[in-house]
Automatic annotation (TrEMBL):
Catalytic activity: L-fuconate = 2-dehydro-3-deoxy-L-fuconate + H2O
Listed name of the protein: L-fuconate dehydratase
The keyword Transmembrane helix belongs to this UniProt entry's keyword annotation: no
Domain Mandelate racemase/muconate lactonizing enzyme C-terminal residues, every copy: 202-298
Native organism: Kitasatospora gansuensis
């Protein structure tokens, strides 16, 4: 069978969970005990071709529900020609979004939408591998007209028309080769959340904050929102550790009511926080706008739980955010994130993506790098979050150097995990979980 007639022969899914709650990695005011998890999908192809890898990120219980949602999409994918999928990933995106019965479970939000994102991202991984390029380069090299064809303008055309998107992308092409060379030379700016998990002691926070500065990071982030006096003490310790010139963001993970967000953020203002992240519900557009007015000059950032391009559109229209934090796996994959990047570019709002989790750093670096090379052309006031755990489970893990993400050079979307990691941490029958239960039984 020739490569041109290769088809999708299997859609394999895995419930992969890591016991991160035991060290309080990832702990915050709303999520005190996360077990970072991935509802993982592999698109197998005939003729010994490439595979496409993708996933949704969850934090433990419910990952099986997320896997079931991906499984529900299998009939749309099996048997499709690989060339058709890779030439036009938007065709699958439109089919999955348009399944009227599954759409009822959203529409375009929640577990079903995240499942679509996992599958769509797996197709982009497959497409980039077939082209022999890392995804950021595939996107940066693509013709603006083709990229526009991949964007769903339904519900956002009042804020961004296809013509405006095309003009943004055509302008973004100017100087792209030079920026690609600079990206490969220097990388993309990063900030680190590793010192700031809420469950860490003050000693550990201070040690990791000092280490972050020594490692070349110019911004760190602390989790806040559980107890104000604790937050004041922790912010003071962090500011003393990093000095006055390092940016320090704070993140409440949706903990507060609107008035409480303003009061609490202003109580921490003496420590010069750069932004307050997720101060209230991610669905509360007008609430974010009120918080933004009430805490200035502290910036307001949100986006990791924003469920689709339509909510992002409204946050921008309402002037509710200073920083847009897209997530690679929360919305419906690369196609919808292209729409969100274009909206942010139209409104002149910098994108500083959410990362961490399982593989989110690996994925989102590609989106920011495309944005720099072939859309906005700048990294000013733009940074990608970095969290230093679980990268060892990926075939092409992120590399941080002098506080910058090194540009991936391997073909694909950096989504593939080592088979040994899949075998070990698949729940409940992977080697780790079997041994863990046996140890518990003996105890």
């Amino acid at each position: 069978m020739s490569v041109t007639t290769a088809r999708i022969t299997a859609v394999d899914t895995y419930d992969i969970r890591f016991p991160t709650s035991r060290e309080l990695d990832g702990s915050d005011a709303m999520n005190p005990d996360p077990d970072y998890s991935a509802a993982y999908v592999v698109l197998r192809t005939s003729a010994g071709g490439h595979e496409g890898h993708g996933f949704s990120f969850t934090i433990g219980r419910g990952n099986d529900v997320q896997v079931a949602a991906i499984d529900a999409l299998r009939p749309h994918i099996l048997g499709r020609p690989v060339s058709d999928l890779c030439d036009d990933p938007g065709s699958l995106y439109r089919d999955l979004i348009g399944d009227s019965q599954l759409r009822w479970l959203g529409p375009e939000k929640g577990v079903m939408h995240m499942a679509i994102g996992a599958v769509v991202n797996a197709v982009w991984d497959l497409a980039a591998k077939r082209e022999g390029k890392p995804l950021w380069q595939l996107l940066a090299d693509a013709e603006p007209e083709w990229l526009v064809s991949q964007v769903d303008f339904r519900y956002i055309a009042d804020a961004l028309t296809p013509g405006e998107a095309l003009e943004l992308l055509r302008t973004g092409k100017q100087g792209a080769p030079e920026r690609a060379a600079e990206l490969l030379r220097r990388g993309y700016p990063a900030y680190t959340t590793s010192p700031g998990w809420l469950g860490y002691s003050d000693e550990k926070l201070t040690r990791l904050a000092k280490q972050a500065v020594a490692d070349g990071f110019t911004q760190i982030k602390l989790k806040v929102g559980a107890d104000l006096e604790d937050d004041i003490r922790r912010c003071r310790a962090a500011r003393e550790a990093v000095g006055p010139d390092i940016r320090m963001a704070i993140d409440a993970n949706q903990r507060w009511n609107v008035g409480e967000a303003i009061e609490w953020t202003n109580a921490l203002a003496e420590f010069d926080p750069y932004w307050i992240e997720e101060p209230t519900s991610p669905d509360d557009i007008l609430g974010h706008a009120t918080v933004r007015r009430g805490v200035s000059p502290v910036k307001v950032a949100t986006g990791e739980h924003v469920q689709n391009r339509i909510v992002f559109k409204q946050l921008l229209q309402a002037e509710a955010i200073d920083i847009l934090q897209l997530d690679s796996a929360r919305v419906a994959g690369v196609n919808e994130n292209l729409a969100i990047l274009l909206l942010a570019a139209k409104f002149g709002v910098p994108v500083c993506p959410h990362a961490g989790g399982v593989g989110l750093c690996e994925l989102v670096q590609h989106l920011s790098m495309f944005d720099y090379v072939a859309l906005t052309g700048t990294t000013e006031n733009r940074v990608i979050e970095f969290v230093d755990h679980l990268h060892q489970h990926f075939l092409d893990p992120v590399v941080i150097s002098a506080g910058h993400y090194r540009a991936p050079i391997e073909p694909g979307f950096s989504a593939a995990m080592h088979q040994a990691a899949i075998d070990t941490f698949t729940y409940p029958d992977g080697a780790f979980w079997v041994a863990d239960r046996a140890e518990g039984d003996q105890g």
